[in-house]
Amino acid sequence: MSDAIILRSVEDAQAAVLAHIVPLGTETVPLIATLGRTLAEDIRADINLPPFDNSAMDGFAVRHADVAAISDRPAILRVVGAVPAGGVATTAVEPGTVMRIMTGAPLPPGADLVVPFEDTDDRSTTSLRSEGRVRIFQAGEPGANVRRAGEDVRRDTLVVAARTVVTPGAIGVLASVGAANVQVYRRPKVAILATGDELVEVGSVPGPGQIRNSNGYANAAQVIQAGGEVLQLPIARDTAAQVRAQLEQGRDWGADLFLSSGGVSVGDYDVVKQVLTELGALDFWRVRMKPGKPLAFGHVLGIPLLGLPGNPVSAMLTFELFGRPALLKMSGRRTLFRSTITATVADRILDRGDRRQYLRVSMQQNGDEWIAHLTGNQGSGMLSSMLHADGLLIVPEDTPVVEPGTRLPVMMLGWPEVDPREEQPPSAGDDVCC
Predict the structure, then answer these.
(1) Range of the domain at 401
(2) Same structural domain for residues 66 and 207?
(3) Tally of domains within the chain
(4) CB 255 within 8 Å of CB 190
(5) Taking the model in full, what pTM does it have?
(6) Which of 1, 2, 15 shows the shortest CA–CA distance to 321?
(7) Per-residue model confidence as pLDDT tens digits over 23-32
(8) Inside any domain, residue 373
(9) CB–CB of 281/273 below 8 Å?
């Protein structure tokens, strides 16, 4: 039997796909354009953060020696100046004196702590402000309310490592160390091809025997969510000539991956496999999962092609398990697989049990326990079951009955990928904490 038609396990199929995928090249982009991208270089601090000792509060910069003896009576000190944020004190704080200081302003020489306004009489009707003095009722130890130079980040230290996914927090840190332009991995370019004589465009009214092209749009949205760029190829009718023409168009666009839906089963008009073997190579065809058994992977025109099933739920599920990890690897990511948690099943589930099932579930948290509820009809054509799905309940092979109360893994669709130490995709029996 050909290796391509052996029924593969999910893990073997994932490994086979990822073995043929490599990270793409890199490009330098403005910092604001890096959100969600993967860094391709280490970024080190060019300055200390903070760059100087500064006040963490609006208040008075004082000498601890002048306020250390405060008990029942306040310390009364002379106000000799003010330091706004962005300003610099021109004189030092001498014994018996203080300076007004705003949050973020450099600590003046001589001062070693900041007393907040609320611990003084500065804002009271009986203040000594008109006399140029202030009463201080309480004060902390040396260093109180002072942010020391370099206490957050020291100059020349690594602040964000290569292969890190850029978040808003990372952008803030990168901005603070002057990383105006940053090297990141290129976004994968994915050419999406929906095939079938029955398909019409979204804006058309389906005629007899026709359906709208939901797969093309759902898969495009998944690609964009995973950080890829999309080329929506025109619908290809069930002829080898049309499929070839659309694939050539994707190649000319510079596609890094072809993502097709339909045409990979065993019907008389399933021509994607035919074209795949004519213009490239078919690595494998079927996977031991439900839904999503007729999944094809190979290369065409020198470009990887992932052939998803035509049923809409199957197409979305197989993208999650195979397409998304491939795109993340292309994007330079180290963590490729969704987080998996253990949940209590709320419903009774019956099946032949010959293939691993991925069932759409909504999740309810009850204290420390997660409860998984099936989202309606689980047929592979019931696209509405994806609308309310928080995760995919994984029912292991050879499990014909799942009783309520059974604890099974759920792959969470809206959660981040698993810990970078997770080197292999989680199996149905794994209990991986998010």
Answers:
(1) 340-412
(2) no
(3) 4
(4) yes
(5) 0.84
(6) 15
(7) 999 999 999 9
(8) yes
(9) no
Full DSSP string of 49-93: BSSS-EESSSEEEE-HHHHTT-SSS-EEEEEEEEE-TT---SS--
Partners of 226 in the beta sheet? none
CATH number at residue 171: 3.90.105.10
Asked whether residue 44 falls in the same domain as residue 174, the answer is yes
Q: How far is 377 from 383, CA to CA, in rounded Å?
A: 9
Q: CA–CA distance from 405 to each of 351, 376, 432 (Å)?
A: 17, 18, 19
Dihedral sign from CA coordinates of 352, 358, 361, 364: positive
| C-alpha dihedral, 125 to 129 to 134 to 135, nearest 10° | -20
pLDDT tens-digit series, residues 62-107: 999 999 988 888 999 999 999 999 999 999 999 999 999 999 999 9
Q: Are strands 349-350 and 303-308 parallel, antiparallel or unpaired?
A: unpaired
CA nearest neighbour of 206 among 196, 191, 221: 196
Whole-number pLDDT of residue 237? 84
CA distance 247 to 255: 9
Q: Which residue has the tokens 């601890």?
A: 64
In the predicted model, residues of the chain with pLDDT beneath 50 are 1, 268-269, 419-434
Residue with tokens 């099974």: 408
Q: Is 301 left (phi over 0), alpha (psi -120 to 50) or beta?
A: left
429 belongs to a structural domain: no
> Would you say residue 10 lies in a domain?
yes
Q: Which amino acid is at 40?
A: A
Tens digit of each residue's pLDDT (9 = 90 or more) over 254-313: 999 999 887 665 554 467 778 888 888 888 778 999 998 888 899 999 999 999 988 889
Q: Which two tokens stand for residue 246?
A: 């659309």
Residue with tokens 């099943």: 345
303 and 234 housed in the same domain: yes
Q: Is 82 exposed, middle or buried (0-12, 13-18, 19+ CB in 10 A)?
A: middle
Q: Do 310 and 244 belong together in one domain?
A: yes
Q: Taking a C-beta distance cutoff of 8 angstroms, is the pair 139, 66 a contact?
A: no
Q: Given this model, what pLDDT does residue 5 score? A: 58
Whether residue 265 is found in the same domain as residue 117: no
Residues 82 and 223 in one domain: no
Same domain, 199 and 245: yes
Place of tokens 């095939």: 195
Pairwise CA distance, residues 274 & 264, whole Å = 9
Q: Which residues pair with 44 in a beta bridge?
A: 158
One-letter amino acid of 36: G
